[in-house]
C-alpha cells in the first residue's frame, strides 16, 4: 500500500498569501497530507490582502481548507514538538510561499528560531526538497546572494513570476500558473494551467 505523500507549506509576511493558500488547496485536492505553518506577519497579510478575520486562526484556516478535505494540520510558530521539526519524520518536502526576504535571510544563515525556519533547516540537512517562492521587487545584492546560497545547498528558488503564454483571463489564472510551477517541483499532479504545446 502506497504511503500518502506528506508536505509542509510555510506562509510568511511577503505579499502574496494567496499563493500559499492555493498551494495548500491544490495539494489537498491531490490527496496529500499538508502541515501548515504561518508567520505572524503572514497572518497580517491574510487580513490585509485576503480580507480574512484571523481572530480565531483555526476557524480562519477551516474556512479556507475544509472544502478540500481533512488532510491538513496547523502548527504555531513555537510548536517545536510538531513532527515536522524532526528529520526522523518522513516529510516529503516543504514550500515557503510567499517567502519574505527576512525569512530567506534567516534560512541562508542557518537560523531556526521558529518552527517554519526549523522545518526548512530540516529539509536542507536531510537533502529533501525545499522550494522557496520569493515575492519581492526589486531585489538587492543581499537578496540575490541569499537565494544563490540556498540554491547551492539544494533549495529550489521559484519566484512568483506568472507566465502569459496561456493567455490568462483572471487573477486566479495568474496565481494558478505560479502555483502550478511550484507544484511541478514536487511532481504533484495538477491541472492549473495549460502547458506549452498542449
Automatic annotation (TrEMBL):
Family (UniProt): Belongs to the UbiX/PAD1 family.
PANTHER family found in the cross-reference section: FLAVIN PRENYLTRANSFERASE, FLAVIN PRENYLTRANSFERASE PAD1, MITOCHONDRIAL
Lineage: Bacteria, Bacillati, Bacillota, Bacilli, Bacillales
Annotated positions binding FMN: 13-15, 39, 100-103, 135
EC number: 2.5.1.129
Cited function: Flavin prenyltransferase that catalyzes the synthesis of the prenylated FMN cofactor (prenyl-FMN) for 4-hydroxy-3-polyprenylbenzoic acid decarboxylase UbiD. The prenyltransferase is metal-independent and links a dimethylallyl moiety from dimethylallyl monophosphate (DMAP) to the flavin N5 and C6 atoms of FMN.
Coiled coil: none
List of residues binding dimethylallyl phosphate: 165, 181
SUPFAM superfamilies for the chain: Homo-oligomeric flavin-containing Cys decarboxylases, HFCD
Highest taxon above the source species: Bacteria
Protein name stated in the entry: Flavin prenyltransferase UbiX
HAMAP family: ubiX_pad
Keywords, comma-separated and alphabetical: Flavoprotein, FMN, Lyase, Prenyltransferase, Transferase
GO molecular function, one term: carboxy-lyase activity
Pfam families for the chain: Flavoprotein
